[in-house]
Amino acid sequence: MTTKQAATDEVLITRIAQGDRVAMQVLYGRHHVKVFRFGLRLVRNEQIAEDLISEVFLDVWRQAGKFEGRSSVSTWLLAITRFKALSALRRRKDAELDEEAAAAIEDSSDDPEIAVQKKDTGEVLRRCLTSLSPEHREIVDLVYYHEKSVEEVAEIVGIPENTVKTRLFYARKKLADLLQAAGVQRGWP
């Protein structure tokens, strides 16, 4: 994100704190896709991720005056999203277990379309990513998909920077092992 973009987001937050609805619409338009995607990766349910968007931006509307500017606005939004997602996961712990058990049942009869998809490198990578622990998956998501720095990830997740670096190291190592076991060689496109 450029310095001009960040400054613009901060101006929007200031205007939102003063009750400017147009500023809220602009901020929402600029960031709702990122918030949705990050929330979806955490909760793995589109409906809950949609609900998270509403909750996050409602909090922004209510709490804009409390934004201290210690991080970028997008980092602040992702931190709120993470908190809301973890709360949602705690509320639906029983339902999550049922979905995980159902997803763990493997269908041994693949049709030709599924067989082709299994060979697709992107599909293999996504499967390998879901095999990582939630902590490692979250770090990889923030660093590679949201292009956050180690410092920003530490702030979002609420852990020391060295812990972020350690989790990222082990996540990469585990991912490399999983990809190699799946037949994907280094240097793939």
Index terms:
Rna Polymerase Sigma Factor, Chain: A, mainly alpha, 189 residues, DNA binding, WH-like_DNA-bd_sf, single chain, Arc Repressor Mutant, subunit A, 2 domains, RNA_pol_sigma-70_dom, RNA polymerase sigma-70 factor
Secondary-structure-derived class:
mainly alpha
- How many distinct helices? 10
Oligomer: single chain
- Uncertain stretches: none
State the fourth-level CATH superfamily of the largest domain.
RNA polymerase sigma factor, region 2, helix turn helix motif
The CATH topology label of the largest domain is: Rna Polymerase Sigma Factor, Chain: A
Q: Which sequence of SSEs, written as H and E, runs from N to C?
A: HHHHHHHHHH
Biggest sheet statistics? none
Mean pLDDT across the residues is 83
CATH class of the largest domain: Mainly Alpha
Radius of gyration computed on alpha carbons: 19 Å
Beta fraction: under 5%
What spatial form do the alpha-carbon principal axes imply?
globular
